[in-house]
Design brief:
alpha/beta; 15 helices; 5-stranded parallel β-sheet
C-alpha cells in the first residue's frame, strides 16, 4: 500500500507563474505529487499517513545537474590550474585509463553522496563502466540519465566495441529502477570522434529511440581544430552529420556565433551550462542571455568534480545569475527566477523529462528538497526565490526526496554508507599509478 505524506512549508513551485505559496503544503503518494496548495487548517485531521510540519522552511523541486562524470570524483584536486587539453591529455586520461569497475563504483558513490547532500535529485553522467554506475544509482535511489561516453581516438575495433557496449547498456538499463534510470547515446566530442563514428552513434540512437549527449564548442582551440579538420565549426559540423535531427543535449556551448545559436534554437537543442568548470579551465563564458532570448533551453551542469571541484549545484545557480550580469553590464541579464528555472524546469528539459520533472505540480514526480530557512542568511524573508538563488548554499538542504522516497532526512543520509564510501574512495585512488 502506498504511503501518503504531506509536508507543510513555504512552497517554491517553479510552475508556469513561478508561484510561491507562503503557508503551503505538498503531498505525495508513492512517487507522485497529489496536492499542492494552502496548508489544511487542521494538520492532524488532514487524512495523510504522515504529516511533516516544517513551517517556514522552503520546499522546492529537486535540482537537476545536466552534465557530469561521477566516477571522476577520485581525481578531485589531483591536477588543478592547467589548460583543458593539457589537463585532459597529460593528467586525466592517463589515470582514467587505469580505472576499473571498482574504481568507478567508489568514485560514483562519493559523487552521489555529495549530490544528495546538496539537493540534486537528477543528474546526467557520461562515463565508462556505466553498468556499475547504474547499479549505484539504483541502490542510492537517485534519478539519472546515463550515457556510456565514447572517445574515438582508438582503433576501429575499439570504436566498435565501445558502440556495442553503449548499445547493450542502453538495452539493459533504459527505463529501469522504476523509471529512475534512463539512457542517452554519447559520442564524447567532435574533436575526439570522427564523422563516421559520430554518424554510427546517431544511427544507433535513432534505432533505439534515444537522445544524444555530446561535449561541444567548449574551447576556442576545439572550434579552430574543427574548422581545420572539417572546414566547419562544431555546430554546423554536427548539423551536417544529422545529430540535431534527434533530441540532443550539448555540454558547454561556450564559443558560439549568433548564427550558431539560431541553429540550436531551430532544432530545439538543449544546452548544459557548466559555468564553474568553464571558468576554472579558462574555457570562456557561454552566451547564455543570447541563447535564452532566442528560446534555447539552457540548464546547469557541474561537469566533474575534477574540474569544478564540487557537485554543489547551488554554486552553479548563483554564478549563472551573477556572472552574466557582470560580463554583459546588465543587472537583469539572468534574473533569479530564470536562474532557478535553469536548475529545475530547464534541467528537466535537458534530460527530456519536462512532463514529469522540474516543478512542484500535481501529477509530477515527487522529487523534492527542503531547505532549512531558519537561519540568519534567509532573513528578513522578503523574497524566497531571491534567497534560494543568492543566499542559499547546498549545506542548507536538510531533506532530499526522489520518487517519494527520502534519501536524506534531517541531514542524515539513508541510502549510502558515507563513512565507508570516503574510506574506499581514498583506498582505490592509492592503487592508481601516478
Amino acid at each position: 500500500m502506498k504511503k501518503t505524506i504531506l509536508i507543510h512549508a513555504t512552497v517554491i513551485t517553479v510552475n508556469d507563474t513561478n508561484e510561491v505559496i507562503y503557508d503551503g503544503a505538498v503531498a505525495f503518494e508513492g512517487n507522485k505529487i497529489t496536492y499542492v496548495g494552502p496548508t489544511p487548517e487542521d494538520l492532524s485531521e488532514a487524512g495523510y499517513d504522515e504529516v511533516i510540519d516544517q513551517k517556514g522552511d522552503y520546499i522546492l523541486p529537486g535540482l537537476i545537474n545536466t552534465h557530469g562524470h561521477a566516477g571522476m570524483s577520485l581525481l578531485r584536486g589531483y591536477a588543478d590550474d592547467l589548460p583543458l587539453q593539457q589537463w585532459l591529455e597529460d593528467k586525466m586520461w592517463p589515470l582514467e585509463a587505469q580505472f576499473t569497475g571498482d574504481t568507478v563504483k567508489w568514485g560514483t558513490q562519493l559523487s552521489l553522496i555529495e549530490m544528495i547532500r546538496t539537493g540534486t535529485t537528477t543528474f546526467v553522467d557520461m562515463y565508462d563502466h556505466m553498468d556499475v554506475v547504474a547499479k549505484e544509482v539504483d541502490t542510492a535511489g537517485m534519478r539519472a540519465r546515463l550515457c556510456r561516453g565514447m572517445i574515438g581516438l582508438c582503433s576501429e575495433e575499439e570504436r566498435q566495441t565501445k558502440l556495442k557496449d553503449a548499445t547493450l547498456f542502453a538495452k539493459e538499463w533504459h527505463n529501469q529502477a522504476d523509471g529512475r534510470i534512463t539512457v542517452m547515446m554519447a559520442p564524447h566530442a567532435p574533436y575526439t570522434c570522427s564523422p563516421e563514428f559520430i554518424t554510427q552513434i546517431i544511427e544507433k540512437a535513432d534505432e533505439l529511440s534515444l537522445p544524444l549527449h555530446i561535449h561541444m564548442s567548449e574551447t576556442a582551440w576545439e572550434v579552430g581544430q574543427n574548422e581545420k579538420d572539417y572546414g566547419l565549426r562544431p555546430v554546423a559540423h554536427l548539423e551536417k552529420l544529422g545529430m540535431f535531427n534527434r533530441p540532443t543535449l550539448v555540454a558547454h556551448a561556450v564559443h558560439l556565433t549568433d548564427e550558431e545559436i539560431d541553429i540550436l534554437a531551430k532544432y530545439n537543442v538543449r544546452v548544459s551550462h557548466n559555468v564553474v568548470s568553464n571558468l576554472k579551465l579558462a574555457s570562456g563564458v557561454a552566451p547564455v542571455p543570447k541563447m535564452l532570448a532566442k528560446g534555447v533551453s539552457v540548464s546547469l551542469g557541474t561537469d566533474s568534480s575534477a574540474s569544478n571541484n564540487n557537485l554543489n549545484l547551488f554554486e552553479e545557480l548563483k554564478l549563472a545569475a551573477i556572472l552574466h550580469k557582470g560580463v554583459n553590464n546588465d543587472p537583469v541579464a539572468v534574473p533569479a527566477e530564470e536562474a532557478l528555472r535553469m536548475a529545475t524546469r530547464y534541467g528537466a528539459e535537458g534530460v527530456f523529462q519536462e512532463e514529469t520533472l522540474g516543478s512542484i505540480e500535481v501529477g509530477k514526480q515527487a522529487d523534492l528538497i527542503v531547505l532549512d530557512s531558519h537561519q540568519a542568511h534567509f532573513h528578513p524573508a522578503h523574497q524566497p526565490i531571491s534567497h534560494v538563488v543568492y543566499a542559499a548554499n547546498g549545506r542548507d538542504v536538510k531533506d532530499t526526496i526522489v520518487a517519494g522516497k527520502f534519501l536524506m532526512r534531517n541531514h542524515k543520509l539513508l541510502t549510502i554508507d558515507e563513512e565507508r564510501a570516503i574510506y574506499e574512495a581514498n583506498r582505490v585512488f592509492q592503487t592508481l599509478k601516478r
